[in-house]
């Protein structure tokens, strides 16, 4: 839970924060676990969350560390590079009985690899993973903020994994396996780590999903792109919303790709997004 500092100004961000906001917008009850500083930027993030209607009672405040900040640069191809500041509030999420109760009583826990870059938050995450009923690993490999050993551990804990093509290639390379053919790479990865599902995002080309021993694909939706920040987070939120609703995989993958495309049409990671918006795009566009 942090601020993305863009050339156009600051925007609320952080992958878990983005996913939480979009899940809420899509009608899924959600609570965000994070930590912000007891500073102006932290207060602004909580105020923004209130406007979005997001439950943040599990967001901790820190008197010793500042609210997280990421310096994001968007190039002419709409690709984004990040400089993530270290030793900020979300690196020090404390394990509490309240967090344990929330996770144990939930339908699932969504987590990313960035949360494991620091010892304190990593230990909190590891303890919560032991009691989570369903675990969703949103891979975000941002050098130098990860290690192979930690990412492999997080994969072993997961039930569903979402990652992009470069991340898939890198992880498969660690394991001595090619990633050029999704038909073989995704079931191999699922089998290696005992995963129920693997989703690979492919930018403008859409996404692929391995689940129920089948590969499902959806090509991208052609839309005018403002920026691509948060598109993968919206895709994951819609994927989970559809899965939780019991929709067929091909249906919720298509809706997930539409959600990512809709976010790309706006600046920032958290524009308004509704099931009706997704319905409109999926019904008007053939992929």
Rg, Cα atoms, Å: 18 Å
- Counted beta strands: 12
Low-confidence blocks of residues:
none
Strand content: 15-25%
Averaged pLDDT, please? Answer: 94
Q: Work out the helix count.
A: 10
Essential attributes:
20% strand; four-stranded mixed sheet; six-stranded mixed sheet; UDP-N-acetylmuramoyl-L-alanine:D-glutamate ligase; alpha/beta; single chain; globular; 12 strands; 287 residues
Protein described:
By secondary structure, this protein is of the alpha/beta class. It has one domain: UDP-N-acetylmuramoyl-L-alanine:D-glutamate ligase, CATH 3.40.1190.20. The chain is built from ten helices and twelve strands. The protein has a six-stranded mixed β-sheet, sandwiched between helices. It has a four-stranded mixed β-sheet with strand order 2-1-5-6. The model has no long low-confidence stretch (mean pLDDT 94).
Quick summary of this structure?
This protein is an alpha/beta fold and 287 residues long. The protein has helices at residues 15-25, 40-52, 97-104, 119-129, 148-157, 165-174, 182-193, 231-244, 249-264, 275-284; strands at residues 2-6, 9-13, 34-37, 59-62, 68-74, 80-84, 109-112, 135-138, 160-164, 197-201, 207-211, 214-218. The strands form 3 sheets. Strands 7-8-9-10-11-12 form a 6-stranded mixed β-sheet, with helices on both faces.
């Amino acid at each position: 839970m942090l601020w993305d500092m863009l050339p156009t100004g600051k925007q609320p961000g952080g992958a878990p924060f983005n996913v939480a906001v979009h899940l809420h917008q899509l009608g899924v009850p959600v609570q965000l676990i994070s930590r912000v500083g007891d500073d102006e930027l932290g207060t602004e993030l909580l105020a923004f969350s209130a406007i979005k209607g997001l439950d943040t009672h599990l967001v901790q405040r820190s008197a010793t560390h500042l609210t997280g900040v990421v310096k994001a640069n968007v190039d002419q191809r709409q690709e984004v590079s990040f400089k993530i500041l270290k030793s900020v509030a979300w690196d020090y999420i404390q394990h509490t009985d309240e967090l344990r109760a929330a996770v144990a009583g939930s339908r699932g826990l969504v987590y990313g690899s960035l949360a494991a870059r620091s010892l304190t938050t990593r230990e909190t995450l590891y303890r919560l993973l032991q009691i989570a009923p369903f675990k969703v690993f949103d891979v975000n490999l941002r050098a130098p903020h990860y290690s192979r050993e930690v990412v492999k551990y997080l994969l072993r804990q997961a039930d569903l994994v979402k990652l992009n093509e470069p991340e898939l290639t890198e992880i498969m390379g660690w394991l001595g396996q090619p990633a050029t053919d999704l038909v073989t790479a995704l079931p191999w990865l699922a089998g290696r780590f005992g995963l129920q599902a693997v989703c690979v995002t492919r930018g403008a080309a859409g996404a692929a999903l391995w689940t129920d021993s089948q590969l499902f694909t959806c090509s991208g939706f052609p839309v005018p792109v403002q920026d691509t920040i948060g598109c993968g987070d919206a895709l994951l939120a819609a994927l989970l919303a559809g899965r939780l609703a019991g929709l067929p995989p091909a249906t919720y993958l298509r809706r997930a790709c539409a959600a990512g495309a809709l976010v790309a049409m706006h600046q920032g990671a958290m524009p308004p997004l509704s099931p009706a918006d997704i319905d409109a795009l999926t019904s008007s566009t053939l992929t």
